[in-house]
Specification:
12 helices, 10% strand, five-stranded mixed beta sheet, alpha+beta, 270 residues
Length: 270
C-alpha cells in the first residue's frame, strides 16, 4: 500500500514538473508548485519550447534525487486526501443504505435490541482476529446497556466460512433468542468453523436438524450475503473484523478501548 501511494506521489510530482516545464517553455509565469524544477528547466540548454520527454524526465529525476523529502510531503498529503475522500464516501453509503446496514433481518443482534447506539461488525467465523475480538463485544455490551451490537456475516476467508455462515443465518432465523449462544460457541470455540461443526452446535442448542437444513436452502440467505458483499465493497471493507459505528468505518481489531471511544463519539453526535 505504501509503495502504491509512493508511486502515486512520484507521478504527482512528475505531473507538476511537466506543468512547470510547460509554463517555462512558453515564457509564462512559472507555477509555484515545484519552482526549482521549473528553474532548472528554464535554464536547460535546449531552446525554449524544444524540451523533449527525455530531457524533462532527466530534470525530474535529478530534482527528486536531490530533494527526496518532497516525495514524503506529497505522500502524506495524498494519504490525507484519500482518507478524507474515503470517509466522505463511506458516510454517504451509511446514510443511503442505513436499513440494510443496521436492520437486516438476517443479522444477529446482541446487547440491547433497542439500544441508542448501534455498532456493526463484519466478521468471518474463521478469522483469528474476530475470535479474539469477541471478548471486546462481550465487554462492551456488558458495560453499556444502551449498546446494540449487530453481527453481519461476511465470510471471505474460505468455503468453510461460507458454509458455516449459511448454518448461522438459518439458525438465527429459527431461534434468534439463542443466536448469541450459537455465535459465541462457533466463533469463540476451539477448532475450525465448518458446516458440520456449526450444525452440531445448533443441534446442541435445541434446533431440529430437518428444519435447520430446510432453512439452509432458503434462497434469501445467499441473497442477503450478496447484499453484504456489495455493502462491504462500497464501504471499502476488505478484511475482518471491520466495524461501523455512527458514520464511521473502523478497519481491523483495534481493541475495546478504541471501540468504546468511537461509541462515545457516536452517542455525543445523537
Amino acid at each position: 500500500m505504501k509503495k502504491a501511494v509512493l508511486l502515486g506521489a512520484t507521478a504527482a510530482v512528475a505531473a507538476l514538473a511537466m506543468l512547470g516545464v510547460g509554463y517555462a517553455a512558453g515564457n509564462k509565469p512559472a507555477t509555484q508548485a515545484a519552482p526549482d524544477i521549473v528553474k532548472v528547466a528554464s535554464e536547460a540548454d535546449a531552446p525554449a519550447g524544444q524540451l523533449d520527454r527525455a530531457a524533462v524526465e532527466a530534470i525530474v529525476r535529478d530534482y527528486l534525487l536531490k530533494n527526496p523529502e518532497l516525495l514524503l510531503e506529497v505522500q502524506d498529503a495524498l494519504e490525507t486526501k484519500q482518507k478524507e475522500e474515503q470517509k466522505l464516501a463511506s458516510e454517504g453509503v451509511i446514510k443511503s443504505q442505513k436499513d440494510e446496514l443496521f436492520n437486516s433481518a438476517f443479522d444477529g443482534v446482541v446487547g440491547n435490541p433497542k439500544g441508542k447506539v448501534t455498532i456493526v461488525e463484519f466478521y468471518d467465523y474463521n478469522c483469528g482476529f474476530c475470535k479474539r475480538a469477541i471478548e471486546d463485544m462481550q465487554a462492551l455490551t456488558k458495560a453499556d446497556p444502551d449498546l446494540r451490537f449487530v453481527l453481519k456475516e461476511f465470510p471471505i476467508l474460505s468455503p468453510d466460512s461460507h458454509k458455516a455462515s449459511i448454518v448461522s443465518m438459518a439458525f438465527h432465523k429459527m431461534m434468534p433468542e439463542k443466536y448469541a449462544e450459537f455465535h459465541t460457541a462457533l466463533l469463540g470455540g476451539e477448532g475450525r468453523a465448518t458446516e458440520a461443526r456449526a450444525i452440531k452446535i445448533a443441534l446442541s442448542l435445541g434446533a431440529d436438524e430437518a428444519t435447520l437444513r430446510k432453512h439452509m436452502q432458503d434462497p434469501d440467505i445467499p441473497a442477503a450475503l450478496a447484499k453484504t458483499y456489495d455493502l462491504a465493497n462500497k464501504l471499502t471493507i476488505t478484511g475482518t473484523p471491520s466495524y461501523v459505528v455512527g458514520n464511521e468505518v473502523i478497519f481491523g481489531a483495534l481493541g475495546q478501548e478504541v471501540l468504546a471511544e468511537k461509541i462515545k463519539d457516536a452517542k455525543a453526535a445523537l
